[in-house]
């Protein structure tokens, strides 16, 4: 294996592990349970909303040299800063990073050491995260060379055992209506598309440190690493969703997502299964926490022009995340869902438009599409919280969870016909596009 191939594999493994965190472990089995015999439909939807969007985000990030501000920039400077900060705060100390510690405790530590103090655990978890994140040049190598192989072996043992010795029969009927839409929603919850926007910064910085400084090299190798990560995610998600489907006659829609994977692992592998699960959860969540902490620190250091130092931001993120993690997984997921539903579509729109940015000359097309996505997303969340807004349920593709697509197209077309002074120079557009 030559150096370039080895570097792609290491970086791809690291990207896989940074993607594969708390939600990636608990959402697919639950989706399998509620989907029953339609688990494959749910799985495909999950892949589209998770891996598909993440690959698009990696592509856009590679074209923008891993800079979040460039992906969001053509929506307008103010909105780009607001949306970028919202993404990084969600991925950082508010939601995603605390969820990694909470999941590790509930699924890995508590089943083995009942009575272990959760506050003490959060301190230990984020102390390790801090130590492994404080030197950004080492983050990808630590994860890709050492932590990911152990994670893959542990996951492989669980999935292969579940396929060879299924725990039960698959329920012939799904427990919910709209399996595809539910798969999309669960895919959103992993936050991988948002994570890809941020984590590409870490990946590209690692490639530069390895000697790949030319633009074409960085884009090409980042995309190859993204494909390695995507293949790994598809295999693992498929296995976990199938395992969930095999117990769809045993559990109902009200089953706890964390308890489900704990009980499945114990049934498949007995007492050693608890140890294996603890290893899986610990590695999956730690690698994600490391990657997202590094990405968050790099982002805020850059937009403040270095006034906020990387080391200071890492410290603040770790301390704040340790506090939030003690609220528990269910509370964090419940709190995160509406926020993600509001910012996710706008981010996806900007990612896709960035990929084709060279062909879109008018920045108002970006602005019109982004504001349309935000508007529909806010109205949809409000409707889901009891404020009746029938329009959002009647829009095209609403049953699939994509009611924002047509408004986005309209917003983009309208914006395209509004003259604008360029926010980016032609050189910038060509470079990004």
From TrEMBL:
An example GO biological process term is:
isoleucine transport
UniProt xrefs under Pfam families = Branch_AA_trans
State what protein this is by name: Branched-chain amino acid transport system carrier protein
Would the keyword Glycoprotein be found if you checked this record's keyword annotation?
no
PANTHER family to which the protein is assigned, alphabetical: BRANCHED-CHAIN AMINO ACID PERMEASE BRNQ, BRANCHED-CHAIN AMINO ACID TRANSPORT SYSTEM 2 CARRIER PROTEIN
Q: Describe its membrane topology.
A: Multi-pass membrane protein
Span of the signal peptide = none
The cross-references to InterPro entries, in alphabetical order and at most eight, read: Brnchd-chn_aa_trnsp_Livcs (IPR004685)
Show the GO cellular component annotation of the record: plasma membrane
Key word Transcription regulation present in the record?
no
Q: Where in the cell is it found?
A: Cell membrane
GO MF, any single term: L-isoleucine transmembrane transporter activity
| Keywords linked to the UniProt accession | Amino-acid transport, Cell membrane, Membrane, Transmembrane, Transmembrane helix, Transport
**Where are its TM segments located?**
7-27, 39-58, 79-96, 116-134, 146-167, 187-204, 225-245, 275-300, 312-333, 339-357, 369-391, 397-418
Which family does the UniProt entry place this protein in? Belongs to the branched chain amino acid transporter family.
| Function noted in UniProt | Component of the transport system for branched-chain amino acids.
